[in-house]
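#struct-help
A.M.: can someone run this one for me? Single chain, 185 residues.
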Amino acid sequence: MRRLLLAVILLLSGAATGQAAEWDVIPEASRILWTAKWNTAPVQGGFQRFSAEIDFDPADLAHAHVRVAVDVASIYMEDQDARSTLTNRNWFDAEHYRRAIFETRAIRDLGNGHYEALADLTIRGVTVSVTLPFKLTIEDDIARMEGSLTLDRTVFGIGASGDFAAAVAPEVDVAVMVTARRKAA
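D.P.: on it. Structure tokens below:
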């Protein structure tokens, strides 16, 4: 009887400390896109494959955590076949660094459905602290998130040299749009 009582107390105390809600990304409704400047003209593309572990409850941000793994070999550029260049050793070096990892350290509520994720972004083995502001709406069991940030590709050693490096601006705008479904309890 004491063991049962202890188990109930532990379960209740765990619930009291809170656990964020878990979500599954809906891939066909989610995108990671980028815009760079090639000789001052915008070029756009994205990543076809990524996975995410999302634990997020707006009422319990202390326990929120997001980890996104992007398959860098899935990079594409609209209207051009540039994958072999963008995945080579000078750019993303997909042979040695298969994934870019975005992992939150904290998420802050800015009010009115706006948040910011304080995170570590690792690309090509280089980790940089970033802030991703985003808007979130949750309707029933569906969450929609949109956010963007600007990265300096040279900090990660992306396109450090070569024919195309000088033609591409260091700043790259990244837009993230994720639709996710709440996991059943």
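A.M.: thanks! The chain has two helices and eleven strands.
D.P.: also worth noting: The chain has one domain: 18-182.
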